[in-house]
Design a protein that fits this description.
It is a single chain. The chain is mainly beta. It has two domains: 345 residues, Pectate Lyase C-like (3 Solenoid); 83 residues, Sandwich (Immunoglobulin-like), CATH 2.60.40. Helix content is 6%, strand content 40%. The strands form six sheets. It has a twelve-stranded parallel β-sheet with strand order 1-2-5-8-11-14-17-20-23-26-29-32. Helix 3 links the parallel strand 1 and strand 2. The structure holds calcium ion (CA) (3 copies). The site of one calcium ion has 6 residues, from loops. One calcium ion binds next to loops.
Length: 487
């Protein structure tokens, strides 16, 4: 819970609004309705609220079985005024099935803020296209904690613990944005998204900067149904740690019970900058996934499995997995196989080879996909960007005195220059190779002499957009680095 994140109404403003709570005033301006001071139960306050009103609940334990329908209501504890986490912990809605439903008829400005939901069955079910759920705590219960049923909106800064089934469940035409949540010890999956058949405007499901740990099945489970539904899923900067089966898995044909087989899932999924730690499997994939800038560490069986079809696995680090990857489109040139040097929180320690080892963007199936904002020279691998970035260092220096310090700019739209050091005056050769291994550019480097040089590759401006390997050869040795061309 984050202290002091947002206080929309200082308490003196609330008092003034309460004095103004005549019938006429309520009709024309948002009001604050207090429970239990003005209404003894939450539902009676919701029923009395007008569109845009806030139902402000004081500390206490209240019965579930609540419903918001036909208007936009903010249902909140005094946390929205105080920023005090105790206002969340001590303002509890307990029991019921569900504890709270936000109906499809609820207004788009509906919000639930700073409440604890405890026990019961299906704690919060959202049918509304847009509802905001922030700073809440979901604990226990026999089934799912937060369910989207054709609903959407933001769920942020919430904590989910000990779900009977999934913490967050997304069914039908839902498009939740799931950001900055902590999800612990679910009976089944941390987040389960079913890709039911759907043909309307593109549904964007976003799963960003969450910590998901200790779940009995998968951290995130994407359940496919036959055919191409119009969805895109972005899974970015999450820490997926110590979940029992897979950290992230695709499932075929509506199956929810992990079978480690993956799915020929054609919906587009971006898996960017996550840390996968532990589990039997890191990622079990589909047929249309871009997997970039991630760390896969400590999977007892396989780090990345069945990321196939038009998928690409590029700029990732694999370390200490039973098997790093199987049956997947892994770009070996951009793949690190080094200890990521993680601390106890799975953040990178100083000197980690994952610092600045990612790519800012990648051309994939004709589209340039960008990483989130980063510091330093390039994105780090894994979920958490280090603050300063590393001073670029020459990691390819060899004892012979031959060195290849890199390609600038990278990504490039035009010609590029390469920085190299030669041990003597004999000729060198540079070539650019595409992902299929075809040589697309070749240039002799003669008369350079011993020492450091910068050489322009003017022909690089003719390269098609894509990912390339730049290889420097000299005296029987070769050194390589990667180049991304964008157009
Ligand atoms: Ca599908
Ligand atoms: Ca499941
Ligand atoms: Ca960086």
């Amino acid at each position: 819970m984050r202290r002091g994140s947002i206080c929309r109404w200082p308490s003196r403003v609330v008092s003034a609004m309460l004095f103004a709570l005549s019938a006429e005033a309520a009709a024309v301006r948002a009001a604050v309705i207090q429970v239990p001071a003005q209404f003894p139960t939450i539902q009676s306050a919701i029923d009395a609220a007008a569109n845009g009103d806030t139902v402000l609940v004081s500390r206490g334990t209240y019965a579930g079985g609540l419903s918001i329908a036909g208007k936009a209501v903010t249902l909140a504890s005094r946390f929205i005024l105080t920023g005090d986490p105790d206002d969340v912990a001590l303002t509890t809605i307990q029991g019921g099935s569900p504890l709270l439903a936000i109906q499809a008829s609820a207004g788009t400005l509906s919000a639930v803020r700073g409440l604890t939901f405890r026990d019961g069955d299906y704690q919060l079910v959202n049918y509304a296209r847009r509802a905001t759920i922030r700073d809440c705590h979901f604990i226990g219960g026999s089934t799912d904690l937060l369910s989207y049923e054709g609903g959407g909106g933001l769920v942020r800064d919430c904590r989910f613990e000990d779900a009977g089934d999934d913490a967050i469940d997304s069914d039908d035409a839902s498009d939740p944005t799931i950001v900055d949540n902590v999800i612990l010890n679910c009976g089944d999956d941390g987040i389960e998204v079913r890709l039911h058949g759907y043909t309307g405007p593109t549904l964007e499901v976003i799963i960003r900067r969450n910590v998901i740990s200790g779940c009995g099945e998968d951290g995130i489970q994407l359940i496919d149904y036959p055919g191409a539904s119009n969805r895109r899923i972005r899974i970015e900067n999450n820490v997926l740690s110590g979940n029992a089966k897979a950290a992230l898995a695709c499932m075929a044909d509506g199956n929810t019970t992990e079978n480690y087989a993956g799915a020929a899932m054609v919906e587009e999924v971006h898996v960017i900058g996550n840390t996968f730690s532990g589990s039997t499997h890191g990622l079990i994939g589909g047929d249309n996934m871009l997997v970039m800038n991630n760390i896969f560490v400590g999977a007892s069986q396989v780090g990345v499995k069945r990321v196939a079809g038009s998928s690409l696995v590029s700029y990732n680090d694999f370390w200490s997995n039973g098997t790093n990857h199987t049956a997947s489109n892994v770009d070996a040139w951009t793949t690190l196989l080094q200890n990521p040097m993680l601390d106890a929180n799975l953040h990178l320690q100083p000197g980690s080879p994952c610092i600045d080892a990612g790519t800012a963007s990648l051309l994939w199936n004709g589209t340039t996909v960008s990483a989130p904002a980063f510091s330093g020279a390039a994105p780090d691998l894994g979920a958490v960007e280090t603050s300063g970035g590393q001073v670029p260092v020459d990691t390819t220096r060899v004892a012979s005195g031959l060195a290849f310090a890199g390609v600038r700019p990278n990504p490039s739209r035009d010609e590029v220059s390469i920085s190299l050091t030669l041990p003597d005056a004999s000729p060198a050769h540079v070539e650019v190779v595409d992902l299929a291994g075809r040589q697309v550019l070749s240039q002799e480097l003669t008369g350079l002499g011993r020492g450091s040089h910068v050489v322009n590759l003017t022909e690089a401006r003719k390269l098609a957009a894509g990912l390339y390997l730049v290889r420097l050869r000299h005296g029987g040795r070769s050194l390589s680095t990667r180049l991304v061309v964008v157009r």
